[in-house]
Amino acid sequence: xxxxxxxxxxxxxxxxxxxxxxxxxxxxxxxxxxxxxxxxxxxxxxxxxxxxxxxxxxxxxxxxxxxxxxxxxxxxxxxx
Length: 80
Prior knowledge:
By secondary structure, the protein is mostly helical. It contains three helices and no strands. The chain has helices spanning about 1-5, 20-40, 45-65.
């Protein structure tokens, strides 16, 4: 985990439980992808944020190719 944290220029946190370190790393990686695709980070539980981002990316691809269900809602009820 130290190597992964260093790879993204974070200070390794061996004082934290491994599960917490993994969760923090996943949250950081997700925040980067949210900025890339949405232009901002989101808040809320990690699983919902992952689902919302996946839905956003899928909707964009479907719109580009004229396929998919128009107006589909994200799991949290928002539209993209």
